[in-house]
Design a protein that fits this description.
GO terms for molecular function: methyltransferase activity. It comes from Polaribacter pectinis. InterPro entries: SAM-dependent_MTases_sf. This protein has 270 residues and is of the alpha/beta class. The strands form two sheets. It has an eight-stranded mixed sheet with strand order 1-9-10-6-5-2-3-4, sandwiched between helices. It is globular.
């Protein structure tokens, strides 16, 4: 099929289903072009090796579902490991889902806060009741976890009047939300040594998700951008005020390590 035929086929599909235009507008190509024009030197974050950030060779996860919509085991190991390095760590996250990340972090942090849409707000979006009910499934009974409810676009983070050691941004991954959440976190929730971690900076550990990267770059104050990194073997980007050895990795890479995982299956009693 030549280019002209492809153009006519695309137009025909859009006329039949106008919503497809959103897929075209939001395509990775568009966001790559956006980044190249606005941030020509930031089309990919430099990568730091997981083992350089967390040299401890023992990382345990006591709650992991291996179900859809969640994080990689290495993503949660990253969160828990970073929090474990900070005495009496105070943790905040945007985006609760089943509560897998925060329940694991809560074993290594003194206090945890997690913000998500309320059940009513989820239902107002036309999403199923079952989906709404599953939010906080693992985390809602833990004493050192505080569940907050609201839309991050309109939520007043300033009213918390509190700073956090580690902040995880894992809400809506559309550009406007990532930019908003990033800007508000840096304005209201950070102290000078805070660490910020973004989920889904990458589709998979060797493929950047350009829309999320664009939101990060446009949300973070310019003076912090040189301390942005991708953490190898994860979907995560990270900000830390510490300079860490990093480089632009040429994917795919030759592995320099592997993770040995032992899983124990446990039933959940109703």
């Amino acid at each position: 099929m030549n280019k002209i035929q492809k153009i006519f086929k695309t137009l025909k599909l859009v006329l039949k289903q106008p919503s497809l235009i959103n897929l075209i507008i939001d395509s990775d190509e568009r966001w790559n072009g956006f980044i190249q024009k606005k941030h020509p030197l930031k089309t990919q974050l430099p990568t730091i090796d997981f083992k350089d950030l967390l040299p401890n060779s023992d990382y345990s996860l006591n709650t992991f579902s291996f179900l859809g919509g969640g994080s990689l085991p290495t993503d949660i190991m990253l969160l828990a490991g970073v929090c474990k390095q900070i005495q009496d760590c105070s943790y905040f996250e945007i985006g609760t889902w089943r509560g897998e990340s925060v329940i694991n972090v809560s074993e290594n942090a003194k206090e945890c806060y997690t913000l998500n849409l309320s059940k009513e707000q989820i239902l107002e979006l036309g999403l199923p009741k079952k989906y709404a009910d599953l939010h906080g499934f693992y985390s809602k009974e833990k004493e050192n976890i505080t569940h907050l409810f609201g839309n991050s676009l309109t939520y007043d983070f300033g009213k918390l009047n509190k700073k956090f050691d580690v902040i995880f941004i894992d809400g809506n991954h559309k550009y406007d939300f990532v930019k908003n959440d990033t800007a508000k976190v840096f304005k209201h929730l950070m102290h000078e040594n805070s660490i910020v971690i973004w989920h889904d900076y990458a589709y998979e550990p060797e493929k950047v998700r350009p829309e999320v990267l664009a939101g990060i770059l446009d949300g973070i104050p310019e003076e912090y951008q040189d301390n942005l990194y991708h953490v190898s073997n994860t979907l995560c980007a990270i900000y830390t005020n510490k300079k860490i050895d990093s480089s632009i990795w040429n994917f795919p890479v030759k592995p320099n390590k592997f993770f040995s995982i032992n899983a124990t299956l446990k039933d959940i009693k109703d």
